[in-house]
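I have a small job for you when you get a moment. Can you supply me with one protein entry, sequence and fold together? It will help me judge whether the discrete encoding reads sensibly. Write everything out right here, beneath this request:
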Amino acid sequence: MQKKFLSNLILLVFLNLLVKPFWIFVEINVQNVTGTEQYGMYFALLNLSLIINFLLDLGITNYNNRNISQYNHLLQKHLSGIVLLRFLLATIYFVIVMVIGLAIGYSKFQLFVLGILAFNQFLIAFTMYLRSNISGLQFYKTDSLLSVTDRLLMIVFVCALLWGNFTDQPFRIEWFVYAQTAAYLITAFIALFVVLRKSGKLELNWNPVFFRAILKQSFPYALLILLMFIYTRSDAILLERMLENGEKQSGIYAQSFRLLDVVNMMAFLFAGLLLPMFSKMLKMGQSVKELAGLSFRLLMAPAITIVFICLFFNYDIMNLLYKEHTDESARVLPVLMASIIPICSGFVFGTLLTAHGKLDELNRIAMIAVGINVMLNLSLIPDYKAQGAATSALVTQLFNAIFQIYIVKKIFGFTASRKFLFSLAVFISTTFISGWFLSDLENKLMGIAVMTCVCIILAFATRLISIKGIFAILKEKE
């Protein structure tokens, strides 16, 4: 299973490295063109649509991924019922999102944009459900290609609107939303076509008994998704609503959050591969220790590197990427980016607990995390604004990761070897020292490039990542 994980991970990372950096470049240009306040408004609306989007899924995608990976023959039966159920959930979701928007006091234009963003969330959730069937059937290469299709299409559409000279009007934020809609819609149709080729004819089946059974089994997943979205996405909404210059502060926060989101999306690729693999291995009674350890080491080395780069080159990165409020966002960046270390830990150990069906434990941790996050945001945002929100995010993610690791240790008996802890300590200390000295270079891009190369060499020199071990796994027979 380690060979399958590595080979598919290499393809997945390669495809995303081809596409995602271009998308970030396009998204940064959209913020620079539309301005911090307009983008801040969009970012707050996007986060509201994301928090409520658990209603679109109610945990069905995670439940389905785990279930189909263990029982492939259920695909056609579940597909017919779940597709209709998802359309019903989408209707409920749309109504609730718009009611909340009205209650908050959004303007007609903001409500219009929120409505389009809500439709986009439906398309994303529907595509993710379809992809859960594809990965559950172990067609990882197909799923990898679908994972970048929407971003690739968005790059084409947004670039055409930004630089295609199709209109004399200045680029507007709603055009950005329309381009996303077109890309998500096309990707959803492609994913549906692929799934129907595997399952056969789709017959929508109205079966309330089946609906109740699926929702009952998927509810713990739904609760976990809701709680996670609250403590990761409520920051921008609170900034925009609590402060007099809320849209500006939300935009400043978005400048740093975008970089966190990029790394988060890359790390999330691990979870997408690990969930069906862990599920199948646990069902077959196989040990997951080696796969969990391998994925943790592969995530930690780049995560630590990125955190220290953002610590020592924060002002240079922000000045390179943005035109407005770079000093403020530079102060937010290292605090917020430090969250990526506990987030990466969660993508391994949280995913393992999900595959093992330990949703009650995960939900208890997430409930406490929500309480911590909300209290910290309410306390810190009035005085420290975007930086306060970043501090809240870091503390919340650290709490989450520590308790997930504790539960995994308790259930599976995992222990970190002294050799691994020593390698990790050497890697962290040497990376810190390298960043300290390289930050004094006049050419900051050269400093970032040299630091990245040093960290890659360090990761292999300390055996945090064993290149010999990786090649040995890739040569193994399945």
The CA atoms of residues 6 and 474 lie 7 Å apart. DSSP finds 18 helices and no strands in the chain.
